[in-house]
Design goal:
With about 300 residues, the chain is an alpha/beta fold. The protein has eleven helices and eleven strands. The chain folds into two domains: about 90 residues, 60s Ribosomal Protein L30, Chain: A, CATH 3.30.1330; about 150 residues, Alpha/beta knot (3-Layer(aba) Sandwich).
Length: about 300
């Protein structure tokens, strides 16, 4: 194990402080991960870690795993780690990780993408990235060039999943949607004001791009007008809508199920029979939703 780092002038600490700003992170294509759990998850995800600083006497198991994977690991005094982040709270471990390339033309889109139309909150951004990874949405499309996926708040909320998703960034929603349309995506916007429930959305077997909107204003009218489908999550009681990250998770799951059914219907030898079953399922779902609406009025 290398000698314990005790000097604030160590170049690794200087780099961590440099990465405290968005400009610094973008210039270096690097970010900072804080905590044993986050570092371990990034390692398991295959993220490239330049080096890891660990509080002296802590996380010996993590240090062993890092060393076994060829990641330079250095013990530090607890005070040095706190100074690196300019904080008084305890810091167990810090890592400098390489940011994945954005808009990588060598990597094709998957069959399900999430489009962020004005989502700004770091906690929501991170949770959406984590949810997208967990539910099989491989691409996250950002319509704002200034949204930062490399902050510690986003990385922590995503549990390092923000380093796994393929981030596609555009400077306007129009360019993002036009690009997805050109690639054959069907655009599906989520809005509490839609009339169609997403669990019975009539999708084709084409790739799906789910569009979710700003925490306060939702998907913009201009973006809604460009989408092929506008769907909603049925709500009970007086609550009009869900948190955008929660709604995104529900929407990814249900729309992927609809997408799978559409693919089955397109490729099944018994195509007609399968379509009849899907139609019957949708009819029953509509009846159930009608009953829910009656009960809401009665209450």
């Amino acid at each position: 194990m290398p000698a314990v780092i005790t000097s604030v002038k160590d170049p690794r600490l200087a780099l961590i402080r440099q990465l405290d700003t968005v400009a610094g992170r973008r210039a270096a294509s690097r970010c900072v991960l804080e905590g044993q759990s986050l570092v371990a998850q990034a390692l398991q995800a295959g993220s490239r870690l330049d080096f890891v600083l660990i509080a002296d006497g802590e996380a010996t198991r993590l240090a062993t795993e890092l060393t076994a994977n060829g990641v330079p690991t250095h013990p530090c005094t607890p005070a040095i780690l706190r100074q690196a982040l300019r904080t008084q709270r305890p810091v167990e471990a810090l890592a400098v990780a390489e940011l994945p390339a954005e808009n990588d033309p060598t990597v094709a889109y998957g069959d399900f993408a999430v489009v962020l139309d004005g989502v700004l909150d770091p906690g929501n951004l991170g949770t959406i990235a984590r949810t997208a990874c967990g539910l099989g949405a491989t691409d996250v499309v950002c319509t704002d060039p200034d949204v930062d996926f490399s902050s510690r708040k986003v990385l922590d909320a995503s549990r390092a999943a923000a380093l796994r998703v393929r981030l596609r960034r555009f400077d306007t929603p129009t360019r993002a949607l036009d690009s997805l349309h050109d690639k054959g995506f069907q655009l599906v916007a989520s809005s509490p004001h839609a009339t169609v429930v997403q669990s019975i959305a009539e999708l084709t077997d084409a790739p799906v791009a789910l569009v979710v909107g700003n925490e306060t204003t939702g998907v913009s009218d201009a973006t809604l007008a460009r989408c092929d489908h506008v769907v909603r999550i049925p709500m009970a009681g007086a609550v009009e809508s869900l948190n955008v990250a929660v709604a995104t998770g529900l929407s990814i799951y249900q729309l992927r199920e609809r997408q799978k059914l559409a693919k089955l219907a397109a490729t099944s030898p018994d195509n007609k029979r399968l379509k009849e079953l899907i139609h019957a399922h949708d009819s029953v779902t509509k009846m159930a939703l009608s009953l829910d609406e009656v009960h809401d009025v009665e209450r």
